[in-house]
């Protein structure tokens, strides 16, 4: 949690202080730049790394786009960005007087990501918390997003600086949590859900990724990582909409080939899409 300041050291920066003092004001939310309007900001979070949050972000963006919405993705995973590769887009990006132009995929999805700003996509990013959070803010309010129905924010794993910055300074309408059917994952995902609730950000959906594997020969479903927990977690945390995704090697292959848009979901994420 943010540090608690004493009245003597108070800098009137409520976003960086957990004190519940009488002068506390809600942290101001950022607004997009003068050429941009964004109708809905949705965070995709997990708490635990490697559960498929980026894949789910890309799938949700693609599905929304296929339904005719204008969509952008803000890759808030500043040190481990993978959204551009999944869509097969590269930098460099160009700037204008109002801000930086996002990369646009062939399907017209706008993307901003650290990887689009680096000379080489495997260049390491070794920035500390304040720099990372500054970049996330700039990715929101110094990018020429234009008119977007949805901006999806792919969060880094965990609940540290980046998570707090997104939840407290971006006008997030709700989050979708991504989980996997392992007890440990469920517990850690719960931390992100609880923190979002503490910050008054509604959790609108839960996607359990790698929920099962369907044998391509006999069609039988196998619970590789354990039995599904999606309904149990949703009930426990009062999350209204759930969806499950199988383990499917073709998903990873499509991501690696930059063709995430072409993955056929066959309605797998419909309940969550309709919730946002
Ligand atoms: N359901 C799935 N079936 C097959 N492969 C998957 C599935 N979900 C994710 N993957 C693959 O697993 C890897 C990790 O997924 P992804 O990058 O989406 O996870 P993440 O939660 O965003 O990770 P990080 O914590 O690093 O941000 C990727 O190679 C991805 O393509």
TrEMBL record:
GO terms for biological process: iron-sulfur cluster assembly. GO terms for molecular function: 4 iron, 4 sulfur cluster binding; ATP binding; ATP hydrolysis activity; ATP-dependent FeS chaperone activity; metal ion binding. The keyword Coiled coil does not apply. InterPro entries: Mrp-like_CS (IPR000808), Mrp/NBP35_ATP-bd (IPR019591), NUBPL-like (IPR044304), P-loop_NTPase (IPR027417), YlxH/NBP35 (IPR033756). SUPFAM superfamilies: P-loop containing nucleoside triphosphate hydrolases. Homodimer. Belongs to the Mrp/NBP35 ATP-binding proteins family. Binds and transfers iron-sulfur (Fe-S) clusters to target apoproteins. Can hydrolyze ATP. This is Iron-sulfur cluster carrier protein.
């Amino acid at each position: 949690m943010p540090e608690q300041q004493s009245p003597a050291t108070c800098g009137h920066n409520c976003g960086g202080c957990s004190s519940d003092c009488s002068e506390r004001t809600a942290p101001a939310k950022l607004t997009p730049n003068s050429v941009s309007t964004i109708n809905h900001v949705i965070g995709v979070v997990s708490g635990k790394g490697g559960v498929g949050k980026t894949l789910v972000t890309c799938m949700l963006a693609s599905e929304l786009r296929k339904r005719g919405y204008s969509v952008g993705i803000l890759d808030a995973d500043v040190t481990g960005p993978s959204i551009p590769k999944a869509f097969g887009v590269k930098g460099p990006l160009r700037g204008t007087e109002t801000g930086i132009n996002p990369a646009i995929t062939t399907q017209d999805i706008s993307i901003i990501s650290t990887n689009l700003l680096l000379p080489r996509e495997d260049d390491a990013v070794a920035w500390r918390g304040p720099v990372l959070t500054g970049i996330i803010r700039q990715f929101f309010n110094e990018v020429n997003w234009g008119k977007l129905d949805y901006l999806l924010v792919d969060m880094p794993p965990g609940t540290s600086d980046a998570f707090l910055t997104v939840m407290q300074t971006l006008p997030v309408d709700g989050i979708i949590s991504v989980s996997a059917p392992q007890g440990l994952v469920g517990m850690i995902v719960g931390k992100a859900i609880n923190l979002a609730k503490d910050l008054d950000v509604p959790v609108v959906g839960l996607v359990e990724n790698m929920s099962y594997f369907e044998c391509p020969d006999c069609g039988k479903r196998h619970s590789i990582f354990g039995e599904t927990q999606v309904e149990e977690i949703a009930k426990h945390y009062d999350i209204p909409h759930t969806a499950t995704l199988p383990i499917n090697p073709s998903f990873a292959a499509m991501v690696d080939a930059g063709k995430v848009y072409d993955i056929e979901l066959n309605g797998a994420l419909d309940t969550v899409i309709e919730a946002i």
